[in-house]
UniProtKB/TrEMBL annotation, chain A:
Identification of the protein by name: Tubulin delta chain
Protein role: Acts as a positive regulator of hedgehog signaling and regulates ciliary function.
Keyword Translocase: no
Family from the record: Belongs to the tubulin family.
Any one GO biological process: microtubule-based process
Subcellular location as annotated: Cell projection, Cilium; Cytoplasm, Cytoskeleton, Microtubule organizing center, Centrosome, Centriole; Nucleus
GO cellular component: centriole; cilium; microtubule; nucleus
Limits of the Tubulin/FtsZ GTPase domain: 2-180
One Pfam family here: Tubulin
Automatic annotation (TrEMBL), chain B:
UniProt GO BP: microtubule-based process
Entry keyword Transmembrane: no
Protein name, entry field: Tubulin epsilon chain
Family in the record: Belongs to the tubulin family.
Superkingdom per UniProt: Eukaryota
Pfam family, one: Tubulin
Residue span, Tubulin/FtsZ 2-layer sandwich domain: 279-414
Gene: TUBE1
Amino acid sequence: MEPKVINQTLSKAAQSGRWKYGQHACFCQKQGSGNNWAYGYSVHGPRHEESIMNLIQKQVEKCDSLSGFFIIMSMAGGTGSGLGAFVTQNLQDQYPNSLKMNQIIWPYGTGEVIVQNYNSILTLSHLYRSSDALLVHENDAIHKICVKRMNIKQISFSNINQVLAHQLGSIFQPTYSAEGSFHCRRNPLGDLMEDLVPHPEFKMLGVRNIPQMSENSLAYSTFTWAGLLKHLRQMLISNAKMEEGINWQVRPPLSGLPALGKMSFNKELHFNTSIANLVILRGKDAQSADLAGFKDPALYTSWLEPDNAFNVWKTQRAFNKYEKSAALVSNSQFLVKPLDVIVGKAWNMFASKAYIHQYTKFGIEEEDFLDSFTLLEQVITSYYNL
Amino acid sequence: MTQSVVVQVGQCGNQIGCCFWDLALREHAAVNQKGIYDEAISSFFRNVDTRVIGDGGSISKGKIRSLKARAVLIDMEEGVVNEILQGPLRDVFDSKQLITDVSGSGNNWAVGHNVFGSLYQEQILEKLRKSAEQCDCLQCFFIIHSMGGGTGSGLGTFLLKVLKDEFPEVYRFVTSVYPSGEDDVITSPYNSILAMKELNEHADCVLPIDNQSLFDIISKIDVIVNSGKLGKTVKPKSLVTSSARALKNRQEKPFDAMNNIVANLLLNLTSSARFEGSLNMDLNEISMNLVPFPQLHYLVSSLTPLYTLADVNIPPRRLDQMFSDAFSKDHQLIQADPKHSLYLACALMVRGNVQISDLRRNIERLKPSLQFVSWNQEGWKTSLCSVPPVGHSHSLLALANNTCVKPTFVELRERFMRLYKKKAHLHHYLQVEGMEESSFTEAVSSLSALIQEYNQLDATKSMPVQDFPRLSIAM
């Protein structure tokens, strides 16, 4: 809703000389939403609904076969969160047969925006109702990756965004659709949903990828699939966000015994139970990689067979200078702790009624807040009880 | 991009305003090398072709012809405004955007507010509407005034109500200069308290400043610069404290250096809205993030660094020093000690070559020594603008919504009560039409209510952080 960033984005793309955004593919206003979810949702949304939906319609018409929408937004601000939620809702109404995946940026814990917790819970609760899947990237996690793995001294947002883009690329670049076939996967978005979101109550997906290192170190490293996959599996089980500092003590529960991970609400979660996992392998000899470790039923909840819960996509083509790389998209308890923390902080602020007048000014009442809290507490409980 | 209109009222307001426009022109001249009228300049200036007779046709793009400030100058005495109009900035101001009178307000809030308010209401409205029409998308009014006098205090706060009624969607940011302890105007407590009531009710955000703090800052800079401790690395006159005139003439007016600090404050406040950066912050975000309850909208500000080093490659330690300084009580623009009081919210606006990792590192470093209110433990709002201020490689403006403003208010109330009990000078006010004793008592109770709110928050300072019980879900 304000012009500076879009102008920057358009000119940067055009400067690359290889691609650019469509000339009329952007929409901006002058004033921004002031970090106010209510302003983005209740004021900007209805005001610009027609123009925005028209722009989307034009792009849709240019597609041969639309599988769905990928909506990129943050949760902490006003426009990304509020207007993003509004647009997602509209997309659901107008294109009910298309899939929607929202890529959301989870803000830094120590705050970029003071009311980010309010904006986040309002966004999450609304998206949970209208979106099909939420692919979450946490700023804190990516920042740590930059610090520890990429050896960057002064980290800027463009560093962070590059790591993020790499993760997204490793998911969405083409892969082959079946063993030995030469056809590319036709519908990655649809396949992602099918593989990872078997139940509408569990929509939150996280991404881990391996290896993560700076370009200088790449030249001196070699990888084996066995090594990479062993690390990736442990990252999954112990809920590690990056390749370093993985807790190797965490083990999946032995079959037949009650799962160690099934603890009550407030205790520390050690073992990360998954609903579904998708591993994407890119690089030499991907066909020969052994993925048995991921098919262990102990990793998954009881209501899905590992054959259904685990999928793998492969391609021989290396990605982004890594000779071999693997990405894991997981619908698991990855995000339940951060979600719990955000809901807790928002609840404390809400109990003191701080900043509420800024939201009621634009039509979001205390009831709307309470609805959001209720929905999210429900999601947290469901995930904890996996 | 949005525009802002500056309304400068009274002697203090106009003098600060003058410094502000001087600095704004220099900043834009340094950034805008090509002389093209762009969005950043348009936030404070109009581009006018002075050859066109009449209204002066406004040009929205292309080369800069003649810049006119988006400002309205109001004073009930002619001296200050005339001086501005004869000085080097005379072409920047539109001669039709002035309101002056001859006799002045006699340091009497009632005269400024009631007498001149009703007398000039129509004219004021007309000039404001004109300014607003010339804006594409008006976002904010900046009002600059002092609290202790008559015009700035009385007419300035009268304006607030007018702005609220006429432009309810436009933000009202007020820069108020509070009277110091040894103020030479005897009735300044009366004026200030009467003005505070208006600020409580009609302003969106108030940045209180006091002369004593500004003076201390200037003295400190002079001591450091002149002691030669830092040697050749410090430029003798930094742009934070001196205007271009002074740099040339070496003969400064007494308040010039102090006013420049306030002018820098205003520029840094709006820098992220005008220039690009990796983490932008618009003016509406300031209000959204720093005002948790409508009454508590007083923000303590501090500006660092205050002197320029000639060394361009600033080692990280200097950068960290900049952050530490912003929280020390010597750098605040009002007599306050935020470190030992309770923070409700804090905003850090950084300009220049600083990255997100530097910002985060410093927040982590400083957080343990600061006390935040229980429901806002991580109450930080941050912004990064890539354009540094003129003459510096980076700078930081910290805005804090902190209970440390309370002592200022309490002291003000004490000084008020000392006069009021004796009914000293009261007749000057009561003989103005529309003023009664109840006006005074209402004003004091409004201030007392505000102080009480801060007291309540302070009381929670030492209590352990309690989590409220969450909603429980039946499975």
